Amino acid sequence: MLKVRNLHARVAGREILRGIDLSMNHGEVHAIMGPNGSGKSTLARVLSGHPEYEVTEGEVLFEGENLLEMEPEERARAGVFMAFQYPVEIPGVNNAYFLKAALNTMRKHRGEEELDAMEFMTLVRDRMKQLDMDEALLSRPVNEGFSGGEKKRNEIFQMAVLEPKLGVLDETDSGLDIDALRVVAHGVNTMRNADRSFLVVTHYQRLLNYIVPDVVHVLTDGRIIRSGGKELALELEDKGYGWLEEPVGTSEA
Amino acid sequence: MTNSLENYKQAFANSRNRRSPAEPAELVRTREEALNRFLAVGFPTTRDEEWRFTSVAPIAGHAFTLAEAAANAGHRDVAPLRLPGVFGAELVFVDGRFALALSSIDELPRGVRLGSLADDAGSHANGTESHLARVAPFDRRAFVALNTALFTDGAYIQIPAHTVMEKPIHVLFVSSGETDGRRAAMSHPRVLAVLGDDSQAAIVESYAGPEGALYFTNVVTEIVLGENAVLDHYKLQHESTEAYHVGAMFLKAARSAHCASHSISLGGSIVRNDVVAVLDGEGGECTLNGLYLADGHRLIDNHTTIDHAMPHCGSREIYKGILADRARGVFNGKIIVRPDAQKTDAKQTNRALLLSEDAQVNSKPELEIFANDVKCTHGAAIGQLDEDAVFYLRSRGLSLAEARHMLIHAFAGDVLNRMPLEAIRNGVEAVLRRQLARALAVAA
Fold first, then answer.
1. Are A106 and A78 in contact, with CB atoms under 8 Å apart?
2. Which regions in chain A score pLDDT beneath 50?
3. Is some CB atom of chain A closer than 8 A to the CB atom of B98?
């Protein structure tokens, strides 16, 4: 589903990604771990098409299509969803109104009928219940005045409504208490199926107790230096990233 | 410039025979004074502090002629708000002249009187003459002087004490855009609304003309609110984008009166809206909100004054502008707190959204506070669309254009959502949507 080859990217003139190779199949959950400044979030943002990030080399294929040539909205419509690390507050844009517009744009793109207000509300109520969210958040402006946890939950909620093929979670667990973490993880696990994949970027192993990955990649200094099964995350938790930075030779996945 | 003043002298002479012969002697005298005042001061220039950012040279340079198009049904079609069943009365004016055939008046509450000032000026029966041309001072306002000298018609609305007008009243001024073959047309309509004690009404003024037509509208609105009266007022300026629109509204509120005025300016090549609200009795409240949109080389200037003359009055003011291309916006918000006006609570906010590098806005709050126990705050902000927000919306599948529209509407919504009448709000929103789509399509 997703093939990243020799991806180099920079922001503000500084090279952050120095040759990422990554391959994900349908239905897989991959975790990207790594210390601060390793390029984890940059990878997520490059995949979402953030205009500040410039790709200097390499390619990304999503379902066989060249993702890097697509505008951010085309990526979203193709089925890539980015759950932001710091979701932006948008005063004056009603959460439900925005989400309905987004969903219907996607549906139109997929050749499906647009949902009317009733059908939309039925869907939304169901997803909110799953994520233990207060329905009052629907009538508030997007993320405005939301707590950190509410913002993260709102991201997963949007993902649950938009039903992408690939969910990219950028440090969704940062700043969440254990209850919120469980709820968010439950939301993601509910969505897991044979077709849908997730790329989970995280600083902490903790999240991976709840969203159990198929593959764990360790990113340092803009490169994936180790890939392995879920036990790799535990090992990291135990030994820290320093253990991997010792000269054991760069491993290719 | 002298030539142009000569033109208005001529227009004044011509307008005499359009006026009612029964016009009260005092009004006739006031008109002479106003004309002389206008001829003495002439059109303002940018050396005048009140007009520093707005040159009216293009208006002064035209030899406009008083328009005389006969009203026909087509004139109604340019109305920006067509809301069947919403209004209790619609008074339609074509080129400043009352068009009875286009107007409609439902059954009115007892004692409510409204209609054409031209019909009314001769009759002393209802007392409008005690207010007409007395609420709007013209000695320091050339355009008000010009209107006072030249108006031959307009709308009067009189709501007696203890009377509630359930449905809003619509006053529509349509410019035909017709010329006499050589010279573009001008009109100088007048609106007078008098609300008695404990009365309540909603009044909508709209201004429109065929898109692309060049003409000049110079309107003066006078509003008098009795004690405890409640007025919900809207002005929708949707003139041709080639037209000139100068409007001044003067409002005088007695004790505990409440007034909210919403000014929406979408059309016009050069537009100047003056609003002067005098809170002349204790406990009065006034809300002045405004939204304007300009693209191309257009200029929209809003000057507001809220004069707190008595204690315990409150005012709230939010003006927002959306400027594309090389458009310019001007906002000047004056708040006066007189020595007697203790416990005044005034708040002013002014924001502008610039959609291009070349658009600009000049914003100036002016606080003149002569009392010591008051609360007065003001804030101004000028900015561009939040790029992070644009990206966020796009990352959810909305196109760049949709994302921009959504954010611009959110910006405007802050003003629109404060309009209490839903039908008007929706109507205005639809007009805004059209104008915005046009402005952004041209910009793209």
1. no
2. 247-253
3. no
- Residues paired with residue B8 on neighbouring β-strands, in sequence order: none
Look at residue A204 and tell me if it is in a domain: yes
Best probe of the B interface among A88, A95, A108, by most B CBs < 10 A, is: A88
Range of the domain at A227: 2-245
| Domain assignment of residue A253, yes or no | no
> Can you give the CATH number for the domain in which A182 is found?
3.40.50.300
Two tokens, residue B326: 């090389």
Residue B288: strand pairing partners: B261, B317
Q: What is the pLDDT of residues B370-387, one digit of tens each?
A: 999 999 999 999 999 999
Q: Is B92:B154 a contact under the CB 8 Å cutoff?
A: no
Mind listing the pLDDT tens digit for each residue in B231-254? Answer: 999 999 999 999 999 999 999 999
**Contact list, A102 vs chain B (CB under 8 Å):** 393, 396-398
Identify whether A223 is part of a domain: yes
Query: Nearest CA to CA, how far is B434 from chain A (Å)?
Result: 19
Is residue A81 assigned to a domain? yes
Cα-based distances in Å from A64 to A215, A216, A234: 21, 23, 33
Return the domain boundaries, chain B.
2-385
CB pair distance less than 8 Å for A102 and B407: no
Amino acid B182: pLDDT: 81
- Give percent above pLDDT 90 in chain B: 81
Is the confidence at residue B1, as pLDDT, over 50? Answer: no
Mean pLDDT of the region B277-299: 96
pLDDT at position B70 is: 79
Q: Does the distance separating the beta carbons of A50 and B397 come in below 8 Å?
A: no
User: Among candidates B222, B221, B159, which has minimal Cα distance to B196?
Assistant: B159
Q: Total domain count for chain A?
A: 1
